[in-house]
Amino acid sequence: MSDEESTLKKIFSDWRVIIMTLLIIFSVLSIYALPPAFDKGIEGNLQLGLDLSGGSWIQLSFQSEVVRFSSDMTASEFSEALSKKIDAEVLPLSEDQIEIRKYYSEDDLNDIFSEIGAKIIAYEQGVSPETAADVKRILEDKVNNLGTQDARINTLSGLNDVTRYIRVELAGTDINTAQDLVSSQGKFEIRIVTTGNETEHVLFGDSVTSVSRPSQSPPGSQNWGVGFTLDDAGAEAFRDSAIRTNAVKDPDNHNLIMFLDGNTVYSAPLSSDLASKLLTGTVRDLSASTGNGNEALEEAQLLEIHLRAGALPVDVTIAGSGSVPAQLGDYFKMVCIIAAILALIAVAITVYLRYKEPCIVLPMIFTNIAEIIILLGIARYIQQLDLASIAGLIAVLGTGIDQLVVITDEVLHEGKVPSPNVYMKRFKRALVIISVAACTTIFAMLPLALMDLSTLKGFAIITILGVIIGVVITRPAYGKIIMAILSKKPSK
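RESULT FIELD:
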């Protein structure tokens, strides 16, 4: 067996190199073959943000406020009194904090609060985290139902935990379509089974005047449901249909079915309690039960969205919007590719000038490219690539070479690999050094990754992923590759 064959056998029989090779194959398949995307160009299945593929963004401002108050009444009592006073939905958030789902200036609220014996302690325009999460779920449901691809929705919150804005980014969508998507409502309909599979119309979504959050009924039980209220005409139509179809006396054979844009979103018979109430009069306050457990809670959360028919729980106004033409996105894409190639060439030249040995430079560059490929293969599932993310990729490329230089300088002795025992001691010491540096980078990036800063979040996530992949996968593999290659190199 020749020296070259022996060296290759050493390299590709090491488990670290095998794992790296398998991840490279998996990443290439993820980008181009899972599902097949060979016709999409170099990006394959990568999720490109609107910076690179063109698209639109809309930033919405909530017409609502979170108020901390002082009063002799409890939060629930005060919420009910204020709701009647201003004819708006008011939700208690804590013992001294409420959310008012209608816009009022602080001056206007001061006068209203004084009339009912309360005082404002703190005023912030926006919504609670729970309401912001509801809005985000509704917008995501709209996007999914309409088949819009590569959408990103982020809530923008301050340090006081009040969400003032929500930002919707839609790659490949023009600004008019994006605005229509945000403001559109679906067609919600309730029908009742008559005979067999036949159904008849009961009411449309405009008869639903309010929808509550998912709750347990009775309180403390595991039975989840969503309460909603009908207007007078809807309640009358509901009662007439239930009596006419005999659902009040035989509910099991006359399910109540809810449709959103023609798709069934809920189907269940009337409860015995509701059936008896309908025999004596109209019922405006209804509840749709989804069952027990975590799955039932998720179904209740979805049903709340469907009952709203895409309507947001609070009014919003467009605080800002913009778009990136497809031609400009293609230009940015080409510039990013050129920048990455130039960065790789610059790194290769710098490393060659330092070591003047192709047998060191080539494994370094190969390892760096492998790291980027693996990073892209993983990012394809969890992160859109925008300009900030591309900047993260280039940063990973640079820091990766730095760490490979640390390993190389640490393990080499007079240009040659020392004995295996000495090599492994030096190699482990080098891994400790770069692991500490990696932890520093991760901790520095974590605030950007966790905070609602949509522009910088991609940069932070890509950088953290790149550092983890490097320390766990590519650096150990590089150490074994360089050992196998240089162990055959004679001393100078």
